[in-house]
Amino acid sequence: MTNTSPSSRKSRIASAANVMYTNAVYWPNHRLYNGDTPGALNYGCINRVYYAFANVTADGGVFLSDEWADATAPCDGVQGALGSLMHLKQRYPHLQVVLSIGGGASSETFPIVAANTILRDNFARSARGLVEASGLDGIDIVWEYPCSPQQGNDFLALLAAIRIHLPEDRYLLTAALPAAKPILQNIDCRGAAEYLDVINLMAYDFFGPWTIRSGHQAQLYAMSKDEPSGSSGVQFLMASGVPAKKILLGIPLFGRSFLGVTGPGHKFRATGGEEGSFEYNTLPRRGTKEQVDKRAVAAQCVGGDGGFVTYDNPDTVKIKAVFCKQKSLGGLCYWSAPSDAKDSKRSLITAGFRALHSS
Predict the structure, then answer these.
(1) Of residues 108, 132, 144, 168, which has the active-site annotation?
(2) Kind of pairing between the strands at 307-311 and 277-279
(3) pTM over 0.85
């Protein structure tokens, strides 16, 4: 792994600011075990990779969650998936690589660390050490989720501590937050945006095995007032004082399945796929026809082994990209890159990039 000098990192952040829109992807390290590698992605359409996830310990330490996959395994002719991304950064000067810290595994640890001044400082120092040792461009906080006003305050205090050690002229600091008002209401979003370069708005998982009824999991527009949607999440952030440019609209590269129903709004008996989801590159399911709900802005297929499956396709992503441009958002981000279609006509990452950058 190579060290990037502060001046070259500074110019990388400055040159990235000149990119019209960000098209960012998450790359989870466990995908290496499926034979996926960062080298397989099309960096003509991607300008930032969030490498997920690093872990946080109860004393505030930040460490790679899978030393073998991250730094040792043979990958794209180098060692480790993170090593591959550092190598790709040299080939693609526009590419930023950001370390995502947290995810579901850290949901119990973040509240402990964020609530304590010394642990917050440990976290910030430890994160900086990892970033500098690897030549990364910054960190992404994925705390799922600050679920009380007190935790919201602690989240802000954590961001403030990180900024002392990762100053904004040299490092990116981003955070992934759900597009759900009950969570966002716990956070002073305007205050958070003063520390953050970007909020990756997870505008998906609105419906799934945990909800009573089926629904479009990543709808841009809700069919009723009490349903969450991508546009209402964006609206909430902007009304709270978050600059539009600091919001990336999240796109899922997976679909949610509901068995025994033919569309949104129904009680379902079970879910298909793996834990209720299918990877995007396996959709539409065999023997089904893909349809687009233009009002909600969601794709779906019905029948086969998935029942009602709700997801995004190139048409819905184009509409979401146009929405981003109309609202002057920063761009799009995708969870997660290895699940995208290999065929460029079907690829959501390609569709998003093209729509963002077409006149």
Answers:
(1) 144
(2) unpaired
(3) yes
Q: Are 141 and 198 in contact (CB under 8 A)?
A: no
168 as an active site residue: the answer is no
Q: Reply yes or no on whether the pLDDT at 257 is more than 70.
A: yes
Task: With a cut of 70, say whether residue 8 has pLDDT above it.
Answer: no
Amino acid at 237: L
Whether 192 and 213 have beta carbons less than 8 Å apart is answered as no
Tokens linked to 187: 């956070």
2 has pLDDT over 50: no
With 0-12 / 13-18 / 19 or more C-beta atoms within 10 angstroms meaning exposed / middle / buried, residue 328 is exposed
What does the pLDDT average to over 57-62?
98
Domain ranges of the chain: 6-253+312-357
Calpha distance 290→17 (Å, rounded): 37
The CA dihedral of 94, 97, 89, 71, to the nearest 10 degrees, is -170
Residue range 142-196, pLDDT digits in tens: 999 999 999 999 999 999 999 999 999 999 999 999 999 999 999 999 999 999 9
Going from the C-alpha of 356 to that of each of 75, 155, 239, 323, 324, the distances in angstroms are: 31, 31, 23, 10, 8
Top-tier CATH class for 6-253+312-357: alpha beta
Q: Where are the beta strands (DSSP E) in 130-253?
A: 138-142, 172-178, 198-202, 247-252
**How far apart (Å, rounded) are the C-alpha atoms in residues 74 and 16?**
30
- Beta pairing partners, 178: 202
Using an 8 Å Cβ cutoff, are 267 and 212 in contact? yes
Pairwise CA distance, residues 207 & 218, whole Å:
8
Look up tokens 């960000």; give the residue.
Answer: 22
What tokens were used for 342?
């290999």
Does residue 274 register a pLDDT over 80? yes
Q: What are the φ/ψ torsions at residue 99 (nearest 5 degrees)? A: -90, 120
Residue 282 and residue 302 in contact, taking contact as beta carbons nearer than 8 Å: no
C-alpha closest to that of 138 among 73, 89, 81: 89
